[in-house]
Amino acid sequence: MNEGKSALYMATSWALWPTIFAAGLIGAGWAFHTGAPLLWFNVVYLSIVAVIAGFERLMPYEHEWLKRDGETFNDIAHTLLTKGGVQLAAAVGASAPMAFATVAQPVLTSPMATWPDHWPLVVQVGLGLVIAEFGLYLAHRAAHEIISLWRFHALHHSVERLWVVNTGRFHVVDSLFKIALSQVPLYLLGAPLAVFLWISAVTAFIGLLTHCNMDVRTGPLDLIFSTPRLHRWHHSKVLAEGNTNYGENLVLWDQLFGTYFNPARRPPAEIGISGRIAEGFVAQLVQPFSAKGSRQILGRKPASVTKATISANLYLDHASRTEPELDEDRSFTRSS
Fold it and tell me: pTM for this structure?
C-alpha cells in the first residue's frame, strides 16, 4: 500500500491527523478567550475545513471519492439544520451545541449537582468527554440496532463516499436523540459552560477528521480516538463490519462493550446502504415518518421477512465477506 510513496509523503500522512486536531483545539482556545467566542470559533472551524479539503485533493485516501455524487447540496443542508453551519455558508453549525449549552446550562443544572468544578479544567473536560461519549455510544448503537431509529440514522450511512462536506449529514431527529443522551447527564451533574464548549470543540474537529478523505495514518491513536480508519469500517455495507466503532470521539466504550473493530486489511471503498433514500433535502427529512418511506429505507417490506432478517439487511448488500474472513478479523480485533 505504501509502495512508491516518498518519505515526505509518509511523514505527512502520519503527522496530518494529530497536527490538524491540535491546531483546531489551539484555535478554539484562542477563540474562547475573545470577546466573540462563537464567531471566532467558526472562523477557526472554517479554516480547518479548508485545510482538510485541500489535503483531500493533494493526498486522497480514495480517488473514487473525489467524484461528485450529486448530494453536496443535501449534505450541506442537513449539516446546516442539525449541526449548524458547515463548509463555507454554515460554520455556525459546528457551534450549535455550544450555543445550546450557553442557553440551557444555567437553566438545566440540577440543585443536587455534584460536578467536581474544583478540578483543573483539562481534567473536567476529560471527565465530561467520557460521560458524553457514553451517551453518544448508546444513541449510535441503538440507531443501528433498533429499526425505528435506524430509519433516521440511515440518511448518514446512505453516502457513497466519505469527505469533509458530508460530516454533518444527519437527520435532525437522529441529532436530537444524540444530544439528549450525551448532554443532559452533564447538565444534571452541574458541569460548567466551559466543559460544554470544549467538548463541542473536540467533537467538531474529530468529526471533520473522521469523515475526511485524506490518506492519513493514525497507528496507536486508533486505540483511543475515533479515527478515519475506524469510521471507514463503520460505513461498511457488511453488517459484521459496519455495526462496530460507534464512538464519536473516543472508542473507550467500543473497547469495553466489544464493538471495536480494526482488522489489518484496508477498509472498503464501496459504502452505502441497501435501501433507498429519497432525492432532495425536504424529501429526505420527511421520508422516515411514513410507512412507505420507511420501507424504502429498509430496502424491503418489513412484513415479508422476519425481524432478524430485517436487522441483517438494514444497510447490508450482504455479499462481501466470507465467514472465515470475518472470524480472522474478529480474532485480530481481540488480539489488538
Answer: 0.80
